[in-house]
Amino acid sequence: MSKLAEYRQLEKHLAEQLKALEALKGDDGLKKEIEFETKLRKLLENYGFSLKHIINLLDPLASARLQTSAPIAGKRKPRELKVYKNPSTAEMVETKGGNNKVLKEWKAKYGADVVEGWLQK
Length: 121
Hints:
- It is built from six helices and two strands.
- The protein is mainly alpha-helical.
- The chain has a two-stranded antiparallel ribbon with strand order 1-2.
- It starts with a helix and ends in a 5-residue tail after the last helix.
- Helices cover 63% and strands 7% of the residues.
- Helix 3 packs across helix 4 (60-69).
């Protein structure tokens, strides 16, 4: 696609999105939601509460469900470093995952079970 065609396509998408944004700006439902959110945040700020406090007050089990549903990004336990040593070549591979090029070659050549036996303790 030429730069000019790409530019025109993006310009067309932008015009469509601007039209949709303008339609939303005039929506009474959106105005009410924005007003509600603004008032709620001011009220929470006045009393020193957060949205989490309100959720816990309204549904105490909600926080438990949120905590057990999925791990939070960045809170996952780091992967353990594994060291494999090829006994025939004395070559060593250090990896935290199974997507290592040399490790894959060894598994293809010698078999996954044999290579797993080379794992150093």
